[in-house]
Amino acid sequence: MSRKIADSVQVPDQEWTAFVRENLLRWYDKNKRELPWRKNKDPYRIWVSEIMLQQTRVDTVIPYYERFMESFPDITALAKAKEEQVLKAWEGLGYYSRVRNLHQAVKEVAATYEAKVPTDPKAVASLRGIGDYTAGAILSIAFDQPVPAVDGNVMRVFSRWFALWDDIVKLSTRRKMGVLGTHLVPSDRPGDFNQALMELGALICTPVNPACGKCPVQATCQAYEQGVQAELPVKKKAKPPRPMRINMAWIRKGGGQVLLQCRPNEGLLAGMWGLPTMEAGQGELVPGDSLVPLLTEQEVPVEWGQVLGEFEHVFSHQRWQVTVVDGFVREDISVLPDGWRWANETERRRLAFPNVYRKAFALAEKRKKGLSGFQGRLL
DNA sequence: TATGCGTGGCG
DNA sequence: TCGCCAAGCAT
């Protein structure tokens, strides 16, 4: 039995709902994984875990989470930390705006809410980097509020459970799923129920080869009944990443200093430091040429050496074919424009670099070892 | 509403 | 090798 509601979502009746709540929670109690953020219900710990887990696998997150919590055990500690230090803790995790937003939001909580995560849903949802899902997760898991937390796992589960053929990429579908979640989440143990749905998606109702034989709610699953679980959820394919030819410059001067460029504050790898980077065509680095102007207003005179190597790096929307070119400066440039700096190895260890630049460093340093007699030409 | 935003693992 | 995927959010 089910009844229709305004936007045509079929909402299960009370009896059915009670049945699946009970079965799902029983399954969860028995099968849930021991995860570091499940040790207690500290809202800050839940919060950090939810941000890290956005579009990121549990196994990847765990070591980052442990280190992050050691460095920044509570809101006050994170609020006081320098952004450079916080970014360093995130290095390699990707989607770096997540941690900038988290840092900003934590500082706001420290200043406005006496360093305690607010329990008011509107206040939580207004924080930087917290959307519908994360707000629901924090409120239900940490504060036992009966609100839904619909993530990708839950959408997949709902899509199969109720045989919904809506494209889960669409926002309208997400809203529809939110309606379902609102009706299903119990006022008793709402956080466990939400986590049980996600855990079911992660362990049983997996994207490929779902383990329907082990599913605690198989008897109520419409996709299973119709034999269409492999065709659900419907998800529009993403466009393949756009191929791009990228040049990076490994420019040195004396004292082991390397020239770094800060990326623009918006777009890919926003605000992150890296090697001077340009799209091929926008500033060709020709080995053997001398005194090629660099991309700063003041034209740092660089003499290019050789191509140190090439590698590929794939982002969500871009596929970089990177060429790393060796260069050195004849004259010392004491003053660099904003967004440029020389950094020695110690300083570089302190900075956070996205993986594409870590690859470039590794390549350049490996090649550098094979180069002899070059040091003498450096200033 | 559709798109941009990282990275690593898996079949 | 390659496409797809993983506890989303901001714009």
UniProtKB/TrEMBL annotation:
Cofactor: [4Fe-4S] cluster
Keywords carried by this UniProt record: 4Fe-4S, DNA damage, DNA repair, DNA-binding, Glycosidase, Hydrolase, Iron, Iron-sulfur, Metal-binding
Chain segments annotated as transmembrane: none
Entries under SMART domains matching the protein: ENDO3c, FES
Reactions accelerated catalytically: Hydrolyzes free adenine bases from 7,8-dihydro-8-oxoguanine:adenine mismatched double-stranded DNA, leaving an apurinic site
The keyword Iron is assigned to this record: yes
Pfam families cross-referenced by the UniProt entry: HhH-GPD (PF00730), NUDIX_4 (PF14815)
Cofactor info, note text: Binds 1 [4Fe-4S] cluster.
Gene3D superfamilies given in the database record: Helix-hairpin-Helix base-excision DNA repair enzymes (C-terminal), Hypothetical protein, domain 2, Nucleoside Triphosphate Pyrophosphohydrolase
Domain HhH-GPD: 52-203
Entries under SUPFAM superfamilies matching the protein: DNA-glycosylase (SSF48150), Nudix (SSF55811)
EC numbers for this chain: 3.2.2.31
Residue stretches in coiled coil: none
Keyword Calcium belongs to the record: no
GO molecular function terms listed in the Swiss-Prot or TrEMBL record: 4 iron, 4 sulfur cluster binding; 8-oxo-7,8-dihydroguanine DNA N-glycosylase activity; adenine/guanine mispair binding; metal ion binding; oxidized purine DNA binding; purine-specific mismatch base pair DNA N-glycosylase activity
BP GO annotations: base-excision repair; mismatch repair
Reported function: Base excision repair (BER) glycosylase that initiates repair of A:oxoG to C:G by removing the inappropriately paired adenine base from the DNA backbone, generating an abasic site product. 8-oxoguanine (oxoG) is a genotoxic DNA lesion resulting from oxidation of guanine; this residue is misread by replicative DNA polymerases, that insert adenine instead of cytosine opposite the oxidized damaged base. Shows a powerful dicrimination of A versus C, since it does not cleave cytosine in oxoG:C pairs.
Family of the protein in this entry: Belongs to the Nth/MutY family.
UniProt name for this protein: Adenine DNA glycosylase
Species per Swiss-Prot/TrEMBL record: Marininema mesophilum
